[in-house]
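Sequence in, structure out. Go.
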Amino acid sequence: TYSDNQTTQEFQLLHDSGDKLSGILGFYYLDGEAGGVVKNIFVASSFGTTDGNVKTTSYAGFLDGSYKLSPKLTLNAGARYTSEEKKAHVFNAAYNSTFTQVLAVAASFDKSKTFSSFAPRLGLDYAFSESAMGYLSASRGFKSGGFNVRANTIAAPGSDLPFDDEVLDVIEVGVKSVLLDHKLVLNAAAFYGDYKDVQ
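Output:
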């Protein structure tokens, strides 16, 4: 059995001067809870449950904009700050064949941790012509850490501890173009990504 419930809300303030500056300022909120119970039967002689849920409360503020440095060159910049609290309730155990008697507890904990991230973005666009544009960008992506609801502290001591955020830093360079009287769209890109703490 499994359930997943989420409530989200986002507010945005948009600006476009019609000349050099355009951008967005926003706020994001998420309240969610996901989890459930899985009954396991291994080789018809080992019985157990994975029983856990995680509640997430997330707040984020973000700002992103573009500024024309010249008729052909545009600066793009932005940032997002995120704060997420994860609360985990886990009870994983081995049972008898009718799942009425606990034989051993693999993990039992109620823990919480707050994860935060600052994720910036910076880039340049250059218009070679009305139909071709090149760009260079650097950005950071973030996925908050959390808890392993399938933890087994007997087989893997420490598996009840929180795991870290996943962070990805990316540099990208590319070209976008519309050619042959709008009959051909040709885009090309090269990028390099550096992951830290892949989940």
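Check: The CA atoms of residues 143 and 166 lie 5 Å apart. The two ends are 24 Å apart (CA to CA).
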